[in-house]
Amino acid sequence: MSVMYLRGGRPLEGELTVHGAKNSVLPILAACLLAGGPVTLSNCPKLTDVTTALDILRRLGCKAEQEGHRIVVDPTGAEGNAISEKQMQAMRSSIIFLGPLLARMGEAHLTYPGGCELGPRPIDLHLAAIRAMGCGITEDHGIHCAGRPAGGEVYLSIPSVGATENAMLCAVGASGVTTISNAAREPEIGDLQSFLNSLGARVRGAGSSTITVEGGRPLSGGEFHIMGDRIVAATLLSAAAAAGGRVRLSGVDWRHLATVLSVFHQAGCRVESRLEYVELERDRAIALRGVPTVRTAPYPGFPTDAQAPVMAALAVSQGCTLFVETMFDSRYRHVPELIRMGADITTEGRVALVRGVERLHGAKVEAHDLRGGGALAAAALGAEGVTVLSGLSHIDRGYEGLETMLQCLGADVERREA
Predict the structure, then answer these.
(1) What are 347-356's pLDDT values in tens digits?
(2) Which CATH class is domain 2-18+228-417?
(3) How far apart (Å, rounded) are the C-alpha atoms in residues 78 and 308?
(4) Which of 107, 204, 337, 346 lies 20 to 30 Å from 391 when distance is taken between CA atoms?
(5) 116 belongs to the catalytic site
(6) Which one of the listed residues 44, 116, 145, 170 is annotated catalytic?
(7) Does the reported pTM lie above 0.85?
């Protein structure tokens, strides 16, 4: 088992290019099933979730290899229609293969997905979207879907990112036109649309609440560059806010981080946003200020994935910050660990009240989910003493070499075998 040793008290300084987005590359890998020839993807992060997605593609009959940040997928030999329970349990977003499997094979066999335990994240919206396109679904010790999608009107009761992406992927292989209403608007959905259109699909409306897909068009292979990861950027900026110093990040669009940057500005950080980079500077001699309310919401609101890292930074501040988590029920699993480090945080349901303290101290803490792990690393860099962080398997799902990124910014971080 690996653990991370983080010594706080050293300001972060430097520049870094943010790696490719986990939440973009995973649906795009699933979309490779629909391609008519080999696909080459660049700027792909080396993550355990990406490894799981590549394993799924191989089990389905594709050739799929990653070398560095480049992935090549050849789907021409794909003939499978089932994903094993082990693979489904390893990654919650494995459900994203449902839509393209139906579009390509006309049949899909899956079990219920696993991943981070963030409370109920029902796949009912995914299944309802599939039904709206004319496919049949049987749930009996798993999920069996059958039928060629015919297109139709898909209305999502909430703007679910995964259900929007699954509907898009299924609709590309449908025999008619599909309209997805109340669609999620996250930037990663725009990246998926751009990828599909680069293969010859006709998808319009990503970034708005209505997406239209003209199905049945022949698709080719191609090349595509994955967008930068805005949540990784938010985590690194949180670490800089916690530790102090000046950090400049490139490879990510600052507009995708606007709500996060606004919170740091309110807290007293200097924020500079340009097309080429985003920069955050915090004077260690001046304490952060509490922010009245941070409320998570679907994009373009404050991202739920950034809630934990930003909370970690604001744990040391003057005043109070109220966090309201509107997306998931169990998104405060990092709070007991921050309290172990000296934070003063009270939670009730989906609300967390952070009373800023003068300092945190190092402790033995454990990551219980992906973004909570990033939050604990950020908190440790602003704390006094050494923090020993375990549960790194969660962190490795979404951060490519988090300790290396932090080292590049001057942090005193080391990964060891326990």
Answers:
(1) 999 999 999 9
(2) alpha beta
(3) 39
(4) 346
(5) yes
(6) 116
(7) yes
